[in-house]
Amino acid sequence: MQPASHAFIGIDLQNDFCPGGLLAVAGGDEIIPDINALMADFATVVLTQDWHPAGHSSFASSHPGAAAFSTVQMPYGPQTLWPDHCVQGTEGAAFRPDLRSDPAALIIRKGMNPAIDSYSAFFENDHATVTGLDGFLRARGVDRITLAGLATDYCVAYSALDAARLGYRVTVRSDLSRAIDLDGSLAAMMAAMRAAGVTIV
């Protein structure tokens, strides 16, 4: 059992990010059993859920003529345009049915603001608007975090980088994460995490 100061964050283990989903990550379903087992080692477990309103500004369908996976400039910087996914209340936005969500002390829903995307469990993509997760963890005396989930090079990596920036000791279980790897994004984000002091297992 990990000490109480060490929390686990499971990132976006949702139907739309698994095979058959609208933004499927290859092998996304394979990691669920081991994540279920890992959660038993932590007193504090947090799960995140992408939870977009229909017509979210990060959807390619909201930008006439734009292709999915292209990039546009938003007021907060460059934004990848995604296929519609994890729309609030849909089956795609639900956690994988084989995921044990009962150990979660907190479920962070992100991407709810239609004008800004949110990869990180800690901040929206403006790197300023908070989700409240930092305050929750501090109140529980957490100073170390292990992360796993979907996708390694987006929501897992952004969460890890923000956690490191906030002063947490951070470990990413790359064996229990799967990547989209869009235009070399996996190698770039792995390098960025290592440069920030994140331990990658």
**How much of the polypeptide forms β-strand, as a percent range?**
15-25%
Q: CA-to-CA gap between the ends? A: 18 Å
Mean pLDDT across residues: 97
How can the largest sheet be summarized? 6 strands, parallel
| Strand order within the widest beta sheet | 5-2-1-6-7-8
The global form is globular
What is the β-strand count?
A: 8
Structural class: alpha/beta
Please tell me how large the radius of gyration is. Answer: 16 Å
Instruction: Write down the secondary-structure element order.
Output: EHEEEEHEHEHE
Q: How many separate helices?
A: 4
What are the defining features of this structure?
201 residues; globular; alpha/beta; 8 strands; single chain
Question: Please, could you describe this protein's structure?
Answer:
20% of the residues lie in helices and 22% in strands. The model has no long low-confidence stretch (mean pLDDT 97). The two termini are 18 Å apart. The strands form two sheets. A six-stranded parallel beta sheet has the order 5-2-1-6-7-8. Strands 3-4 form a two-stranded antiparallel sheet. With 201 residues, the protein is an alpha/beta fold.
Which helices and strands occur, and which strands form pairs?
Elements lengths: L5 E6 L20 H8 L4 E7 L20 E4 L2 E4 L25 E5 L22 H7 L4 E7 L1 H14 L3 E10 L6 H11 L3 E2 L1
